[in-house]
Design goal:
This protein is of the alpha/beta class. The protein has four helices and five strands, in the order E-H-E-H-E-H-E-H-E.
């Protein structure tokens, strides 16, 4: 699975939730990868706090080790083509701008492998 726009708040939450479910995620964001990785750490920590609240402190300690495993399931890629190369599902989570979404969608489906592209449209008219 791939997530394009993984450096933003929504994209990072999607990556974190997928990884916590044991899904390998190829992530891409046009911003700095180092910044996106730090934001993913925050998204994983937020998800772990919610999970710990649900299962209590003892269960939360066990989940803490699982978060490290989840982080290892995420690979960061410098281009959309690299991120979607082996993905069968691509989730687009870029800003709500029709030109940017059109460009990202075009790049994601231009890779010569069959891919299902999920577009997130929140604020577009």
């Amino acid at each position: 699975m791939a997530v394009i726009g993984a450096g933003g708040m929504l994209g990072n939450r999607i990556v974190a939730e997928l990884a916590l479910q044991g899904v390998r995620v190829a992530a891409h964001d046009r911003g700095a990868i180092a910044r996106s990785k730090m934001e993913l750490d925050g998204a994983l920590a937020d998800a772990m706090r919610v999970a710990t609240d649900a299962v209590g402190a003892e269960g939360g300690a066990a989940l803490g080790a699982y978060a490290g495993d989840a982080k290892a399931l995420v690979s960061w890629h410098g281009s959309i083509a690299e991120a979607v190369r082996e993905a069968s599902l691509v989730i687009e989570a870029v800003v709500d701008d029709t030109l940017i979404k059109a460009e990202v969608s075009g790049r994601a489906v231009a890779v010569p492998v069959p891919v299902l592209l999920l577009l997130l449209l929140m604020l577009l008219p």
